[in-house]
Design a protein that fits this description.
With 159 residues, this protein is of the alpha/beta class. It has a single domain, classed as Alpha-Beta Barrel (TIM Barrel). Helix content is 40%, strand content 14%. It has a 4-stranded parallel sheet with strand order 1-2-3-4, covered by helices on one side.
Length: 159
């Protein structure tokens, strides 16, 4: 595992040196990777920029990303709603295999015991929940789902 950390450190040093020297073209690996797993979403929030709710990234793309994952430090997953992606647990495992810090952006409504177990087992480092209101009354104005459904899912993620 030390080998993976060395690869990440060397990549970060190279990226930093290239940036400081204003090198116009460089051949190096990204330190952070962001993927949109799916455009599907179980909400239709009024403030959402997304206009299409169909389509998801084919698993073969992730297999191609596997070659650069050892160099990356961070792996951010979002969508639509990433928990709707049928292979989300496989994606956690893939990123964890290469010791990537995994970040997820989710509305939180689909958290289950199984999902939480996978999140913990694969050391997901950060989950950002999109709850765009402070009360149930204001939440009803911005999202179709109920505030309580998303709010009740939060304790599962913390345990």
């Amino acid at each position: 595992m030390k080998y993976l950390q060395n690869m990440k450190t060397m990549n970060a040093v190279i990226n930093s040196n290239l940036a400081q020297s204003n090198t116009p073209q460089s051949i190096c690996f990204p330190e952070h990777i962001t993927v949109t797993t799916t455009l599907r979403c179980n909400y239709r929030c009024v403030m959402c920029y997304q206009k299409s709710y169909e389509g998801e990234l084919d698993w073969s793309i992730y297999k191609k990303l596997e070659d650069i994952l050892p160099f990356a430090r961070g792996f951010q997953i979002f969508g639509g709603e990433p928990m709707l992606y049928p292979r989300i647990h496989d994606l956690y495992k893939l990123a964890h295999k290469y010791q990537n810090r995994i970040d997820i952006i989710s509305n939180g409504s689909l958290l289950t015991d199984e999902t939480c177990e996978s999140i913990v087992a694969n050391q997901v480092g950060h989950i950002k929940f999109s709850i765009d209101a402070g009360t149930q009354k204001t939440y009803k104005k911005s999202a179709v789902e109920t505030f309580s459904r998303s709010w009740q899912a939060l304790p599962k993620s913390a345990s």
